[in-house]
Amino acid sequence: MKKKILVIEDNPMVIKSLEFKLNKEGYDVYLTADGREAMDKLKTETFDLVLTDLMLPFVSGSQLIAFIKGEHPQVPIIVLSTATQEDIITDAFTMGVDDFITKPFSPNELALRVKRTLGKIKNSN
Questions:
Q1: Are strands 4-8 and 99-102 parallel, antiparallel or unpaired?
Q2: Which of 21, 40, 74, 79 is deepest in the core (most CB within 10 A)?
């Protein structure tokens, strides 16, 4: 069964490249452009992985991460962000994210990190 990945990203170009690469890798990809839409989707569906930006309209990435960790603590989260400040990256890991990828990133690197993160989950069950 295909793994379901929820992508929360407000940049249309990044969304298209993520969707293309992840579909090509064999994942079911669900897209949302803001944190509010993502929270609605997370209330009705379950996902194997969440990829999210930190800078989002309506609901911040940090608020979204807190929501996911409260409602779906087993779901791994990978943050995609232009943020390079150490405190922002440290805060994300403190909140419980599984990985942090700084934009711009290589689609191949993303695919490897997704595979590794999903593999960790599979192996821990």
A1: unpaired
A2: 79
In this structure, are residues 26 and 4 in contact, taking their beta carbons and an 8 Å threshold?
no
pLDDT digits (tens, 9 = 90+) for 68-122: 999 999 999 999 988 777 888 899 999 999 999 988 889 899 999 999 999 976 5
**What 3 state SS string does 76-121 have?**
CEEEEECCCCHHHHHHHHHCCCCEEEECCCCHHHHHHHHHHHHHHH
CB atoms near residue 41 (< 10 Å):
15
Task: Lay out the sheet containing 77-81: strands in order across.
Answer: 28-32, 4-8, 49-52, 77-81, 99-102
C-alpha span between 101 and 93 (Å, rounded): 12
107 phi and psi angles, rounded to 5 deg: -55, -35
pTM of the model: 0.92
CA gyration radius, the chain: 13
Q: What is the CATH number of the domain that holds 75?
A: 3.40.50.2300
Q: Which domain holds residue 37?
A: 4-124
